[in-house]
Write a structure and sequence with these properties.
The complex is a heterodimer of chains A (85) and B (450). Chain A is globular, with a radius of gyration of 12 Å. With 85 residues, chain A is mainly beta. Chain B is of the alpha/beta class. Helix content of chain B is 35%, strand content 21%. Classes of the chains: A mainly beta (85), B alpha/beta (450). Chains A and B meet through helix 1 and strand 4 of A and strand 9 and helix 4 of B.
Chain lengths: 85, 450
């Protein structure tokens, strides 16, 4: 995992969130209290579950790319994350 | 003549051990790992460990072999794997020998509310706490069974959560297991360290209790905790509601069998583990020539056993490829096989003590989702069984359970036990291993067409 510089942030639905060195997107989002990151076809909220890239519950949109598994994606400075897409 | 090429899939304790062993005997080795780090889930939360199979042990060897990180195997035929890397075209990797060390994941247990944000697997919560110092919640209820619970609870407490632990087995089980394990110095030392950490964090373990339902609208707000009997069946009149903003479910682990099944390796159902695992001989050879199984896919047993089995798989490959003299082979085999036997005995004891009780398969009510991806309720699954000649294959076809993005990993281990325990199916006669089809990881359509 590439370390990010101190003071790095990601944008989660437009809100700036601090990122620590080695963070995955899930680690940064959950530290900021964001647990629900996806809505099912049935309209129900979901979030981080298995934490190892298998369940696909934590998928978010990153820099315009959809279905990115947040739990196995290293957070990088100024990444733009959209939840509940 | 070039050296025979061993490809190892999975860079956890088993995979790294297999790679180091085979390399030592002169094999050409490539290690493929889906994540961008080595050590697997176990060492992710223990970065300073120098235990067998750890990235620290592996670091000395890293220059001698090819390490392909951030690459997932999406398809495989005999002798050739297809791997996909982010932002790159998929490519083929051929092998003379293949060690599959794809590990295990937390056993999914369907119960009311288990799909709410804030319900996290024990393994996922442990990684958050240990690797990232992130607490999943301020008040966390851990429900599960086995020696992983104290580790998880103290990691959560250090990350800043207030933790309540519900252990499904009784206090007597803990005492008996500890007494039995105390013959093994390393295990005893670890147990003392963990119990001391629990005491420091003032965490009390509630024995013979499980979470039977999780409450909340859009995220977890609490859980129902109930006393259970020896078979983990909730006792009427014992339900208590507790407030919580996260619930961790840690009822043991199940092997990740997608790659071995895709390659036609035989699997068998182990009623003690309540899981399928890969069939191997005493040298970790699978039923497919040239393919070896290492670690948790050959049966759940923990990181030390995984590392020992990895060494055994690496050695057997070197032997089969003609790289080791008989004398050297038998000497080395004796050392490793003895370790495997000893660690197997410990794993058997733990698996027996913390075997899931049948009550665990009856928590789901009519509206509980049994398949998270395709949002299939227990009632819908039951109706599909009634109308479709009672076969699991028909259940899958009628409801799409197991056909979502997780490819059945989060539903089939539960469905197997639910069909066995609640609906009278026998395993494996009626509930055969669920089929696996490529791609075994989510893949771009453009990559599929390549």
């Amino acid at each position: 995992v590439r370390p990010v510089e101190p003071g790095s942030t990601i944008l989660a639905d437009g809100r700036a969130i601090d990122v620590q060195s080695g963070d995955t997107l899930s680690a940064a989002l959950i530290r900021a209290g964001i647990l629900a990151t996806r809505v099912t076809r049935g309209g129900r909220p979901r979030g981080f579950y298995c934490g190892m890239g298998l369940c696909n519950e934590c998928v978010v949109e990153v820099d315009g790319v959809s279905s990115v598994r947040a739990c196995v994606t290293p957070a990088m400075d100024r990444m733009s994350v959209k939840t509940n897409t | 003549m070039t050296a025979p090429r061993l490809v190892v899939v999975g860079a956890g304790p088993a995979g790294l051990s297999a790679a180091m062993e085979a390399r030592e005997h002169g094999s050409d080795v490539s290690v493929i790992e889906e994540n961008s780090w080595t050590g697997g889930q176990y060492f992710r939360g223990r970065p300073d460990s120098t235990a067998p199979g750890s990235p620290r042990k592996f670091a000395r060897h890293v220059g001698d072999m090819e390490l392909i990180l951030g690459s997932a195997v999406i398809d495989a035929v005999s002798g050739r794997l297809t791997i996909a890397q982010a932002a790159r075209r998929p490519r083929q990797v051929s092998y003379d020998g293949l060690v599959i060390a794809t590990g295990a994941y937390d056993r999914p247990v369907a119960m009311p509310g288990w799909t709410l944000p804030g319900v996290i697997t024990g393994g996922g919560a442990h990684t958050l706490a240990k690797a990232f110092h992130v607490k999943p919640g301020t008040r966390v209820i851990v429900s599960g069974a086995g020696p992983f619970l104290p580790q998880l609870a103290s990691a959560l407490a250090i990350a800043g959560s207030h933790v309540v632990v519900c252990e499904a087995t009784g206090f007597a089980t803990a005492l008996q297991t500890l007494a039995w394990l105390s013959r093994d110095r390393a295990v005893l030392r670890q147990a003392i360290v963990e119990l001391a950490a629990l005491a420091r964090a003032r965490i009390r373990i509630k024995y013979r209790r499980i979470v039977t339902a999780i409450t909340g609208e859009d995220r977890v707000t609490g859980a129902v905790v109930q006393a259970v009997d020896r078979d983990w069946r909730p006792l009427p009149g014992t339900a208590t509601s507790m407030g919580a903003d996260a619930v961790c479910l840690a009822f043991g682990f199940v092997p990740n069998l997608d790659l071995p099944q895709l390659l036609g390796c035989g699997v068998r159902y182990d009623p003690r583990l309540c899981t399928y695992s890969v069939v191997t001989d005493s040298g970790m050879r699978t039923t497919q020539a040239g393919i070896y199984a290492a670690g948790e896919i050959a049966g759940i047993g923990g990181a030390r056993l995984a590392a020992a089995r990895g060494r055994l798989a690496g050695l057997t490959f070197a032997h089969d490829a003609g790289l080791v003299t008989e004398a050297r082979y038998s000497g080395r085999l004796k050392t490793i096989a003895n370790q495997v036997v000893r660690l197997n005995r410990i794993a058997d004891r733990l698996n027996q003590a913390y075997r899931p009780g049948s009550g665990l398969w009856s928590l789901a009510n009519e509206s509980t989702l049994v398949c998270r991806c395709e949002e299939v309720t227990a009632r819908e699954a039951e109706l599909a069984l009634e109308h479709n000649s009672r076969t699991p294959a028909a259940l899958k076809a009628a409801t799409r359970a197991g056909m979502g993005p997780c490819q059945g990993k989060m539903c089939t281990p539960f469905l197997t036990e639910w069909l066995r325990s609640r609906h009278g199916y026998s395993v494996p006669a009626d509930v055969r291993p669920w089929s696996v089809r490529p791609p075994i990881r989510p893949t771009r359509i453009s990559d599929m067409l390549e």
